[in-house]
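agent> Task received from the user: take the single chain below, predict its 3D structure, and emit structure tokens. No templates, no multimer pairing.
agent> Plan: (1) validate residues, (2) run structure prediction, (3) serialize to tokens, (4) report one or two observations.
agent> Step 1 OK, no nonstandard residues flagged.
tool_call: predict_structure(input=
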Amino acid sequence: MGQVYRAVDPKLQQEVAIKVINPALLGGEKVLIRAQRELQVLLSLRSHPNIVTVYDYVEEPFALVMELLQGRSLGTVIAEHPSGLPVDQLYRHACSMVEAVGFAHEMGIFHRDIKPGNIMVVELGHQDQIKVLDFGLAGFFQDKAGLTRTGARMGTAGYIAPEQHLGEEVDERTDIYALGVILFEMATGQSPFQEHAHSDYELMKAQIERPMTVASLFRAELSRSLDEIILRATARYQQDRYTSCEELLEDLRKADHGGHVDYGLRGVHLSPSNSPVLGPVPTTPPPPEVNTDMFRAVTEEMLASRTPPPLPQTKENNQLQSIPTP
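)
tool_result: status=success, residues=326
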């Protein structure tokens, strides 16, 4: 979505991160005006401890001035635990993520591109803290179906909900789907559709046509309650998911304290031989036929080369150091 640079803000008298948005995403003056208007709402999220603070923005080139974080991406943390995060850390990070996303939802902001790379784990003394990045950015440049003004689809394969793939309207349950996928990855150390990860097209197709894998099949110590939570969060159809992050958070806290969560989903997703069911859930209507031409077009858009945007220059700060984007 853009390039991130390290800089010093003379007003704040501290180091900050400047994220320069790819000009190709802006699509014209109307989109820029909308982004500037919605940024005023985004600035209100700075009060939540698990959301990265956005201090200001620059108009030319369009960029966000944000809190500079020292830590690792959640994706890196997951890679360091190939069998899954320790259960206590799993629930702690999960609750922090869901709280942050739920807070933004209450402010009318959907993320639409939640993934481990957009979540930082920041060390604070003996405890670590979750920080969710890039809130609202996707919404600046998308319509309700998740398309940019140039017709490209934003988001990351593997975390995009089925309705995003199909160009249907998105809402808070779209973010909940991505949270469910991340929960699975934190619990098992792998993607729920790992066998399809070699191709974005196959991955998208699997998310629409195949039910979510049961996490405890890969890690026996996981509770049945966590299975139920992940399965409900990642249900194929929006109406079958949690209706809010508040509901999801309530179940996570219950499971963390040994409570029982049961929606009857785990049994449906398991065959008598205790392996994932390959067909759709019987009570759910069959998914629509996949438009292969659409998926190939989307894949080509996602794989298109990106030209890094120029460094932002201001009178007060004309020397910036590039830092890698998580």
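agent> Step 4: summary for the user.
Strands lie at 2-9, 14-21, 54-58, 63-67, 71-73, 119-124, 127-132, 321-322.
agent> Done.
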